[in-house]
Fold these 4 entries.
Entry 1:
Amino acid sequence: METTEVGTQEHKGTSRDFDHREGRLNKYTLFCALLASTNSILLGYDIGVMSGAALLIKENLKITSIQEEILVGTLNVFSLVGSLASGKTSDYIGRRYTTVLAATTFLIGALLMGLAPSFLFLLVGRVIAGIGVGYALVIAPVYAAELSPSMSRGFLTSLPEVFITFGILLGYVLNYALSGLPEHINWRIMLGLAAIPAIIIGLGVIAMPESPRWLAMQGRVDEAKEVLIKISNTVGEAESRLEEITKAASVLVSSPTASPESAHERNWCGEGVWKELLLRPSRPIRRMLIAAIGINFFMQASGNDAVIYYSPEVFKAAGIHSKKQLFGVNVIMGIAKTSFVLLSALYLDRFGRRPLLLLGSAGMVLSLAGLGLGSMFLGRSDSKPTWAIVLCILAVCADVSFFSIGLGPITWVYSSEIFPMRLRAQGSSLAISVNRLVSGVVSMTFLTISKKITFGGMFLVLAGIMVVGTMFFYVFLPETKGKSLEEIGALFEDKHTKNDNRAREMAQMGVA
């Protein structure tokens, strides 16, 4: 793809959809985005429930700390497989059926984990569940972004993070409620219950339409129009959006010399995208990759997943030994996280991506620094003073809350909206694969490194990483609020290139 191919999208949003910019959110669009995002509850539930179940599994199956790290991190590592495959899969079979595939794969993994008679059997279940999670993490925000009008895309595309957070809270609550059961039953029920939402999601997809942008790339313009009429407030809005989408499809799917009609006569299945992304990216595409991979890297390098997975271990080291108390602290943390992610989702389209991202990242730096200092004090104190324990609890709650304001929801929004239509699914899958790889590495090394440098030292390292992350976001991530998906590519172009493209377009229209 040449630079000009991205730049030609800039003018296409200026005369578009007069109604849906200021109109109310279409209820059917909200329903579809909610249903697709429900897939993300599977990852959140696993993160939340495994934080408590890992302690119970360790006692019941007599596994070591290294085996515990492998067990926890396996799901994240193998979600890398699902996330890498999801882009090509969703380009080939569509966004809708990829959602079904994600739920079905996770269902099989959840059943295996719930019925596991041994550590090895449990590990196999987490491998399969991880692949399903990888599929879900990519397809949910991509589908929501492709259905959403520009003025509410931030809210709808952040719904996957809302459901991840709700799943975490649900896992915490069930940890607390089921911890009193016999040790050979409690963790199996906790893990096996994840099969229920997977079944509901798989069946619920029947009510979801296919993405109109995917349909347009397949040349199925009439079907795309039918979907757009359902997800728009007026027929005029639907027609305006269809015109914008079909123009983008003709540019992005066809070769530079092909006619728009020829683009609609073929079924495009994602051919050549990996080469275009990795072997010969244009400068705008390279900048998009840096932005998308960077935000996904720092999302997990911040240690958020590890803090949630291992917070019971952290508080156990701080002097809290009762399982009920440990799981109770988790519930408090889950409530804080859920409250702030809802707040962020509701205001994301009003305040924009950058302000909330920078606020959240700076808040995480302070929270992790406070958690690190509090943990170091507790590690050197035999008396375990109450004020230090309270400081650590407040710092953990602040850390996950600031994460939920910024990095949590905005990573999914940004990853799914900055790539042009032709590259969106596979570009997002590449970026989110980095997310899962880093999450797996951090989760599988957190306890080992913490034993070497203490929990306090580990949290101070994470604070330093987030200082770098905050600077990266400030430099490399432009604001995308209010832009259509077809306009966003122009944000990553050189200024002179944008001016040249606009002059050429105006000349073609007879203006110049």
Note: Residues 16 and 240 are 6 Å apart (CA to CA).
Entry 2:
Amino acid sequence: MAALPEEKAPRRAPSAKMAEVEEVTEGCRLPVLRRNQENEDEWPLAEILSVKDISGRKLFYVHYIDFNKRLDEWVTHDRLDLKKIQFPKKEAKTPTKNGLPGSRPSSPDRDLKRKVEVVSPATPIPAPTETTQASVFPQNGSARRAVAAQPGRKRKSNCLGTDEDSQDSSDGIPSAPRMTGSLVSDRSHDDIITRMKNIECIELGRHRLKPWYFSPYPQELTTLPVLYLCEFCLKYVKSLKCLQRHLTKCDLRHPPGNEIYRKGTISFFEIDGRKNKSYSQNLCLLAKCFLDHKTLYYDTDPFLFYVMTEYDSKGFHIVGYFSKEKESTEDYNVACILTLPPYQRRGYGKLLIEFSYELSKVEGKTGTPEKPLSDLGLLSYRSYWSQTILEILMNLKSETGERPQITINEISEITSIKKEDVISTLQYLNLINYYKGQYILTLSEDIVDGHERAMLKRLLRIDSKCLHFTPKDWSKRGKW
């Protein structure tokens, strides 16, 4: 009989003596074996963030360089390529700016901002304003509809100025963290502890969730294999028995607060961070497990939380939420936004965004999300802005028979999308062109066809008739 060909063994890291393994410490960089989305082995460069010893077996917590932190994990030594290890260099003390104490060192956020500021838009023209005169010309002879921007009256606003992930040159990335809020950007506190996931697994109703990032739950709960949460009040307990005992006493079957929207099985509840402090804090702790670049603050009083739920015979189950400052001087209509992992890629994220703008329409304001957004947040917002603006442009009709005309201000008023976001979206879609001293907006066949295909897939929409919301003037209500 012919011998069967031997199967090729999977590529393994080079063998190493235990003495070499002992030399691997925090801060070392080396290739680490991981399996990618195509289920193939790869060896990306990773940094060792922590080392622990369990029953004589060393485990290494690694962060894959240039990969999202949600992919960080504990690995064994046989997945390390010890022949290519890079030991951490001793950092020399850097002098403070101008030699003065208290000067701030450089940070990734400030470096990114400096890089972003020098990036020019795709078209070699300055960003148009709401008063720019424009005409329309077809693009490559195949334009289906063309829209010209013209001067328009400025919208009155009660807000005084302009702040989950935008990296466009027109989107402001704050160089310093805001010092108020429940979840805000703050890279200065990005120490080794908060860089590591501390919760192994969360059980929330019928779902088990694997956290992506650090969340400051009590330390005694971080060693448990599973953290149990009541899906209605979000109280956390250490065991299934404790959860069962809690459920006999918890009479909530929906988030506390007022139901302000219901259509089909989808409902939205408005929760005041001052009146329902315990629920709001528990919601922030849960959200932090899936939001990076955020710091948790326990003062939820200045915030409103809008929780989206899905209803069945057992109650209203949380799908996602967004938070919002009661008073924002920078036109923020969203502070943090999250769709829980079991409900992602089903249109719920865009529904949350659409709902936030529906509230802004009722308030008579334009709004924008706090930045930086998460990577998933950036994708959702860009998609929502693009679809909403294209919907406006494609439905324009001219009463005089000439090319239809609209201003940036009018788009902003109709959609409640902040003017800067309208402009950056038009630039991102490459719709703005400069021709003979005028700005023109041109919709090609490809843009129109792509938009129509995307809208056919967007089955979940907010029905403004089902919204029962009365905005409050928080400036007249004392300390919220």
Note: The first strand starts at residue 29 and ends at 31.
Entry 3:
Amino acid sequence: MDLHHPHLIGDCLIHIFTFLTEEDLIRASAVCQEWNEAAETPWLWRRMCLQRWSFCNLAVLGSEQVTRSWKRYFLRRCHLETKMTKGRSGGYTCKSLRGHTGRVGGFAYLQGNSAQHPDIWNSSSTVCSASTDGTVRAWNIQNGELLWCSPVQGPLTAIVSDEQHEVVITADSTGLIKTWRGQTGQEVASFSTGSPHCTLLQYNINNNWFLTVGTSQGSVCTLADSALTRKSSVMVCDSFNVNTLLVSPDKKWITAGNKDNLDLSPKVIYTESLTSPSEDEDPLCQSVPVTGCQAAVFIPTQPARLAIIHHNERPNNKALTVFDVSIKKTKYKSEIQVQQVESFPLTLNQRSSHVHLAAKDSNCLVMAAGQELWVYSLKGALLASFKEHTMPISSMCVDSFRVVTASQDLSLRVLTWRNDRDQGLTLESRYHLLGGSHTVSRGFTHVACDYSSVVASAEGKDGKDVLKAYSFTS
């Protein structure tokens, strides 16, 4: 090697260092000045970041500050994930968010730390909750601060949010839909559906804002923009409550159905026919060839692949069937095609239990019923099963890093995803997060999480529900 060109030595060292782990790279940086300069090369740490996480929030590294280097990003995020994986005392803070004087009907992150693009430099998150006390409340979950509270109105039964436009949407017991500015709590618009029970679904298409509402009369009503302008309405359940409402990852399809009637089939609706309806044609709608839908989910990595848990021919037993949804257009008409991809039986034998279903990627389904949790492949192979709660699971949250289950036993169970060489993607049980005392609470009813926090609602025996916020910091 030419000693008059020392940069060649540096290039060779950098290439050699690509074979090291982060621990070995840090040790190598202490050997001498030349090794230190090579080991501190931003390209090395950027490479390690992208190898470990396919989702890195590159925007946070736009600063020229030394404190925001690829190395610090890697080490800080590893430290945060270690805390979230182990869940040890001192690795997180727990805040009790008190103020509601009624039941919490639901809550949603208004400003969260995205699991796809986490910002590890700023861990501040805002959650908005809706209660039967008639108020919407916004909380900073890291410090437990109440940011704003809406004026009292009718009992609230549902809430969703749109982080992109910082809007909160609620429905009350009379079917009145309202939108609120997320930063201030100011009311923006309202629309009356006349339905005592509403299911809300908010989505954006090409920066256009839409809200689809499932009503207790069996119809699906679609509203647009901040003024809640009515765009369309279609009957899907014939006087039964629409309590299943999902939108596909490509936003081209909406699934609507009822979980309580064993004879009803869920429907898939072409979204464009709801958001841009034709004056002389009804919205394009097609029944899925199953009945008694218990739970449904779109596969997140596929444009329009739908998994449904439904009743099969045998009493008390269920099946899970996967469909691909597409549209066939001809010169004179368009038709929705629902094609079965996979189907396999499930032996739950729990007639009254709620079934929860979520999808991790193109080949991983997570299901919970009663006290149990299962992970299946799309072909029906059982990848993992867990029975760690002592009472039924009431809610479940699944993201790219972990699964969190909430139970009536007043605990949250945290499990993390792991790639196994032999089994592939699998789930590993980690720890419990406890919600307090059964003398004052009945159990958890809802749970949601972002990349660095978990929030759950605990049902109070005095009728005053409390939010529990668990925050992990790097």
Note: The mean pLDDT is 88.
Entry 4:
Amino acid sequence: MVEEVQKHSVHTLVFRSLKRTHDMFVADNGKPVPLDEESHKRKMAIKLRNEYGPVLHMPTSKENLKEKGPQNATDSYVHKQYPANQGQEVEYFVAGVALTADTKIQRMPSESAAQSLAVALPSQTKADVNRTAPSGSEYRHPGASDRPQPPAMNSIVMETGNTKNSALMAKKAPTMPKPQWHPPWKLYRVISGHLGWVRCIAVEPGNQWFVTGSADRTIKIWDLASGKLKLSLTGHISTVRGVIVSTRSPYLFSCGEDKQVKCWDLEYNKVIRHYHGHLSAVYGLDLHPTIDVLVTCSRDSTARIWDVRTKASVHTLSGHTNAVATVRCQAAEPQIITGSHDTTIRLWDLVAGKTRVTLTNHKKSVRAVVLHPRHYTFASGSPDNIKQWKFPDGSFIQNLSGHNAIINTLTVNSDGVLVSGADNGTMHLWDWRTGYNFQRVHAAVQPGSLDSESGIFACAFDQSESRLLTAEADKTIKVYREDDTATEETHPVSWKPEIIKRKRF
């Protein structure tokens, strides 16, 4: 009888038991015969004793007995002696399956059985354990599941040869390093004179004056020390969106919503060249630092490279699917970087005039890009985040979150102070290395202006980096400088090494 039972699986035994039990309560005519409870229990006890009595104490497998030892054989499977009284309800276990008096099958193992089974699994690998074991730190990756893990998996230790590797490898959560202390910046001058929004600003290399362009279609040159107006240039027939002063020649370049790109000779204060080619408003421009090349970007979804002297269009950089809002040049590769309303940033090959890398991490329009003056990195501004990148391939570094507005402009100095100006008039100052936001500024608008006219369209440091200039929607230019009286004691860094969660992109 024992040999016959060993040939069949557990499922076969259970199925046969259920069928025989059913047949026992059905008469010849197919109708069930009513039995009282005592008769039912008595017949079931006799049935179980006759059918499974010889195999009640049979071990589950010899391998389990070898590995776990005889003392552990009863941890997950309970074997009971058949009692003398036949009327008592008894629970039987045959090859790991529980058979009760009313032939119910135990579907879920007990907690102790699950623990023993998990420890005894010979094919369990370290990768499976690491995947299911919860981390001992409070930090959890954003992609991790919120489902609670079984406590039994916490104590699994895998043995490989003579080495023991714990399934719980404590990983240190990423924390923000202590930021460098920067003195706060304070407003000390407001310059008025434009009759429309001030859309762009640039400081000349000698640090004696700066230039602004406005929606009143004029370009104005201001004395940097006193803030007084020195000169007004007229010639654009629409809003002036970009200005820049050359470091290689006495030229000023401007562009505007009238599709025009102009070169001004500052010795004669008049236009000497026009660069024709854009089909729509020109939003920005930049000069190459080492060669006579001008790069402009436009609402026509292209950027163009111009030879400054011959006015020839060297390349038309096509690829963006929406307006190109900002462009920057550098001497190293990649030499041209553009940001667009199509949410992408493109790094361009200047020689071939083709895209090297397209960065698609932003989810909204990219209106500002700034290059660090010392590090081989740059930052981009968008309503979703300010992101930092590493050249030459645009490797993502980190997010600077918190400036929840449309960011129009970015600038950074060599001390690592990053400034972001937004459409709602707020200005945030960040530590470049750590991304710590150490100051937030929201200056009052000029008297007589609407509160809605508090946007910041452009900002720039002067050549000494001791002054910060902003071009704003209340028709003014505001000048900020560092607070000389501030110290680390009077303005401490409210920073704690808290756990930070970085998004994956």
Note: The first strand starts at residue 92 and ends at 94.
